[in-house]
Amino acid sequence: MPNTQDRSVKSTEGVNRPKRSLRARICRWGLSLLAVLVLGLLIFLLMPSPIKPAKWSAPTAPSFEEAGPWKQNNKLSSAQLVTDAPQFPEFITFDKEGRLYTGDSDGKIYKVPFDAEGNPQKAQLFADTKGTPNGLIFDANGNLIVTDVKKGLLSISPSGNIEVLADHVDGKPIYLANELDIAKDGSIYFSDTSDYGKVTFKEIAENKPHGRLLKYDPMTKKTTVLLEGLYFANGVALSADEDFVLVAESYHYQITRYWLKGPKKGTSDIFADNLAGFPDNITRDEQGHFWVGIFTTRLSFVDQMHSNPWLASTMAKVPQSLLNGASAPVKHGLAAEFSPQGELIGSWHDPEGKLYGVTTAASHNGYLYIGTAPGGSKGVHRVLLTK
């Protein structure tokens, strides 16, 4: 009789052999992939970093839960959309007739009129710098003075003609003109954010100062450097008496004061420090108080990175495109109000994150107008100034 048992064994072996062969191939592929990943990781770790970071122990961030001026509330949560024509209105200003002006990241500057009841009307295109207009304020002659990230310091006439006032200082380019304020004598104080010339994670990781505070004299048409060594120079605002000018240092969570008058003239000190996030633009209201937009609340990873130069060096090797999401603003709207002496009066929050990425908080006719930048919510918003 035929040996059926032998046939059964042979049949089973024939079935199992391809299965074992497939498993072996998958195992080899897996080991090969693992080897490639390990090799890639080793190459990444051994490759030189583009920066040599400075170690810094950032102060512990203020708590939103504890009683005090940073305590969380929902004052920004009821914000009303004024216009969505500019997607990212970095800064907000008003002309003598009370019309709102703001720029967008694509170069366009918009004008928004209001009706007799204060309701916003359709936005109108005012000018196009073909750059990125950040700060904008009207001078005494009705010209709109603009700090443009790509173009420098500009003047735009009421008819829309654009003139470059300054794009160099001391023989060097103005790398990233950001924000400004104008004194009664026409002098323009503005920030040159960084000689990197752009916003990049490498600068945060490096933790070294690359920004400047500049002054443009309209009489001599000369630009001078007032302060150097600023950690991402950002918002600028003069005091009511013009005895000092403020400049935000976003990457160190502080606002620096440069004295223009008095015994401290020509020197600087810290006006406010350990803010609950990255300060952006600064505006002054009729009471002489300063309003500061906080682009994002503190990022614990960034603070940890500052205290660990190896981690900072390693992160700086990662392509910027892969870090854009990680460095996006926290979805928590925040603005702060300071007294002329630098005391934090209060903070305005949207913990729900409908309004976030705040760059500007500007007080005007009973409203607080809010601007944002790319990465944040879109459009100009406003909330009633009830406290």
UniProtKB/TrEMBL annotation:
Protein keywords: Glycoprotein, Phosphoprotein
Pfam families: SSL_N (PF20067), Str_synth (PF03088)
SUPFAM superfamilies attached to this UniProt entry: Calcium-dependent phosphotriesterase
Keyword Transferase attributed: no
Keyword Glycoprotein: yes
Gene Ontology molecular function: hydrolase activity
Similarity comment text for this entry: Belongs to the strictosidine synthase family.
UniProt name for this protein: Uncharacterized protein
